[in-house]
Amino acid sequence: MNVARRSDGLLSARQTIALLGLMKDRRYGRQEEHLLQDLAASYPAVWSKGRNTIALLREMNFISERDGVIRITDAAGECGSWTRKLGELTATSLVNRLSEDGAGRCLQANVNGSLWLDAMLLPGAGEGLPLWIIEFAVAARENVGSRFWRVTETYKSLFLGGARAANHRRVRRSMSLAELEAKLDRDAIHGKEAEEWVLAFERRRLASHPLVDQVRLVSDENVVAGYDIASFSSSSVLHHDLFVEVKSYEGPKRFFWTRNEIAASEALGESYSLYLIERSQMRLAGYEPQIIPGPYAALFLSQTSGWTISPTTYECVAPVLG
Q1: Which end of the chain has less neighbouring CB within 10 Å, N or C?
Q2: Can you spell out the DSSP letters for 253-305?
Q3: How many other C-beta atoms are found inside a 10 Å radius of the C-beta of residue 87?
Q4: pLDDT score, position 194
């Protein structure tokens, strides 16, 4: 169970070891309030930092809590090794944060092979983690005001390994040309299947329309139309007044909308609709697509649509030199 820590810091290394000692003194564990009360007898004004420290120790699996009673776990080892163990856990926590939080610039190397942490960019600063980084000898600083802290030799390989693993994961997330081409082929097949499904759906909906044969795909003959299907809003309308762009998805509801399609949507207004097709469901009897009429206004102008829209490509045109 993760408990949010407030921004007023952690206990010092000495206070943390004292807190763990209070837990160890009672074979059957202690309640948090009693622990903090006893600790405050020796270290006044530690209540909030004590709670933060207990929350972090719980996240590190150094302690556990059941029915309100806190105990030191077997993973913590013997009390003589607590300082070393907490240093290892602090270093591991920081390495994970540098990878996951996009804070990799915090870790730097210099020409002699030393590793340094930029204290200005340290993640977890509001939770008090920098104090443990110094006090449990994960890194050392020349003086209190030093911005760059040298990673100790004990943890140098851990930090390098973390950076290597993060880079490896980042590269693995990329896609080769062959994989991209295969994906585009699959997307094209999925897109065509969804378009055919919507065409059949519209013709069933307008079965009594005298011009139902003119509910048709236009994407095959006009790739710049900005929509896939020309249809009718009802059986009483004889001129095309519904222009459908089909988007299929699997898993999270997510699709790509081209600049040309967006422009068509803006120009056609309420006559333009997005039909969102869940591929895993479209073969089921009774399935109906999600329809977004007037999607330009619904997605770009509405403040309450709930959709997140972000650009994926930009057109860059060089200036004409004359």
Answers
A1: C
A2: ------HHHHHHHHHHGGGEEEEEEETTTTTSTT---EEEESHIIIIII-SS-
A3: 20
A4: 94
Q: What was the pLDDT predicted at 7?
A: 60
Written as one string, the DSSP assignment of 177-211 is HHHHHHHHHHHHHHHHHHHHHHHHHHHHHTTT-TT
Q: How far apart are CA 72 and CA 228, in angstroms?
A: 63
Percent of the chain surpassing pLDDT 70: 92
How far separated are the first and last CA of the chain, in Å rounded? Answer: 66
Enter the tokens of residue 83: 């300082």
pLDDT for 2 beyond 50: no
DSSP bridge pairs for 69 = 31, 66
**DSSP H stretches of helix in the chain:** 13-25, 32-42, 47-59, 82-100, 129-135, 153-172, 177-205, 259-268, 295
Contacts of 115 (CB under 8 A, 6+ apart): 107, 108, 109, 150, 151, 156, 159, 160
Spatial separation of the C-alpha atoms in residues 229 and 235, rounded to whole Å: 16
Q: Report the relative pairing of strands 69-72 and 107-109 from DSSP bridges.
A: unpaired
Is a pLDDT exceeding 90 seen at residue 207?
Answer: yes
**Do the beta carbons of residue 278 and residue 249 sit within 8 Å?**
yes
pLDDT at position 3 over 50: no
Q: What is the pLDDT of residue 178?
A: 74
Judge contact between 22 and 38, C-beta under 8 A.
Answer: yes
Round to whole Å and give the CA distance between 182 and 41.
67
**Global model pTM greater than 0.90:** no
- Assigned CATH topology for domain 13-76: Arc Repressor Mutant, subunit A (1.10.10)
Distance, CA of 67 to CA of 213 (rounded, Å):
70
State mean pLDDT over 26-53: 82
Q: CB within 8 A of 75, min separation 6: which ones? A: 61, 62
- Of 139, 290, 113, nearest in space to 201 by CA: 290
Structural domain boundaries of the chain?
13-76, 104-172, 177-301
